[in-house]
User: What shape does this take?
Amino acid sequence: MLALLQLAASPPALPLDSYHSALTTLKRPAFVEFEYTQTRSGPHRIVTEQHRVYQTQDGQERNDTVMINGTPVVPAVSRILHRPVWPYDVVQFAASPDDYDFSRAAMVVVSGRKAFGFKLARKANADFMLTNLYLDARRYLPLRETFAVTGSNCSGGGIINFGPASQFWLPTSVQVTCTAQVAAAPAIFKESIRFSNYRFPSAIPADVFVTGGSSNAGAGTQNITP
Assistant: This one.
């Protein structure tokens, strides 16, 4: 009885404790297919590309460029990669108490979901520093993070959004704006990526990850709708 009373009197886990626990136990898809649209702009031009991507949990990746500035690329230009760490994985944007001080901010709504807000201050300066963190009030995973970046004579900031896709937690969009100091005048560069159409087949044929192989990876596999 005493144990039950003590349990009832215990305060709920802090959002940050739940956040770090949720990142540790987060499942990742064994196979995933998705699309993204990338727009890059500078003082003199704007380029928009559409890509189709196939990935496996062990780091195999095929990235097809299928459209540039509204013109289909036929045949698609394919890159075969192997990178065990995907740069847009939510864990790559983890904020550790070893590196950051956290200050509680107001509750907000992000992408239609309630979120705990936190302001972040990095304990030591770095080229990449998180500045704000917004945690989903139900799953304690990031819905949005903002950051500051410096390097290569360019500095600025950005934002990355995440959300649920089936049983997983994946990026939905990222935007970065950077100002470069050049002789004539400061030049502003922008890049945005919007992810879409996540699919989770039971397998991806091995020849997809061979240059010149078929990109019809969904054929003969069972898809789970996000």
Helices lie at 2-9, 15-25.
